[in-house]
Amino acid sequence: MNKPKIKNNTYVVTERAYDSSASSEYNYSLWVGGNQTFYEVSADEVREIIACLQNVLNNTTGQKGGAQ
């Protein structure tokens, strides 16, 4: 897989498999600092990860979305 060159070095790769009669659901892989952090997680798993991270930001900073 060719990883794109991104300035802040954090990005997501989306994959979907196809054949002559069907296609798979999307899978997502997260890269941070040049390291693959998550590999082939589903959309539902991505939503759960985002909700967990948002919750910890809200609870630890006292601000919606966390402190900047």
UniProtKB/TrEMBL annotation:
Q: What phylogenetic lineage does the species belong to?
A: Bacteria, Pseudomonadati, Bacteroidota, Bacteroidia, Bacteroidales
What protein name is recorded for this chain? Uncharacterized protein
